[in-house]
Amino acid sequence: MKKKLIPTSKNKAFSQLTTLGVGGKIKLVIYPPTIRKFAFAVKTLKSLNLQYVILGKGSNILAADGDFDGVAVSTQKLNRVKIRGCNVTAYAGTSTIYLAKLLQQSGLGGGEFMACLPASVGGATVCNAGCFSQDMRSVIKRVTVLYKGRICRLNAEDCGFDKRTSIFKNSDKYAVLSVSFRFCKTTPCDIADKISDIKAKKFASQPLNYRSAGCVLYHDKVAVSRLIDEAGLKGYTVGGAKISEKHAGFVVNVDKACSKDIYLIIRHIIQTLKFRYGVTAKVEVCLINFTKDEQNDLFAGS
Q1: Contact 244, 181 (CB under 8 A)
Q2: Could you say which of 124, 186, 244, 268 would form a disulfide bridge with 207 (CB–CB 3.0 to 4.6 Å)?
Q3: What DSSP character marks residue 157?
């Protein structure tokens, strides 16, 4: 990967590239400017057996404090959107908030919830992100991925979408390249009203004045945030991180927290919910550069 072909950076840390604002330095960050070069970069890293991660907006990532001796492949420059009638295709690095703005301008309804997701289209698809009873799978038609060195198209029903997950999450077999959606015709005014309502709900219920990764845990049938509240864990603090008093599902960075602070809080929540309610909460954030033992310590309970 020559510098002339793909822009690179050597002075970045996960703390600069994630919404939680924690995580160690990255050996190399690359910014492929096209889908073809993105695919080339990932295939090359795989062939060289080099450690790598794919980064969008970093809004659902908890990276460890130690330095990452690998490559972060950023989708930042992959931000093209094509709109044809009610059909929309967005590249993986497209901001969901920006996409929601374009949908409003085009009078395409159904994607209003994206205006409240601080994510990239690729990352939101991987995690089946959503809010207020709607998620990505409700609007996705097809996902174009890099799989075993080839570009493939998967219909939505083949993506294994479930609550806050998909076949792409925690897997190095796939790299999301672009996503195709189908929306419905409506008016920009109607969309604006819906977005305004969603944003008002978000402002009233979420701790937007602190850095976070949204809800850190989930369960298929139980409202985890309600159980955290009932267990009296709101305000529980480790170092510079704490469980939000405003929304118990959020672990927020209130005072220069380190990744370990957040990790320990998540582990404490999992253990508490298991002990008190017999509920095995699942980890929603993607863990990067943690040891296998540290990961197993969380996933064993979920």
Answers
A1: no
A2: 244
A3: G
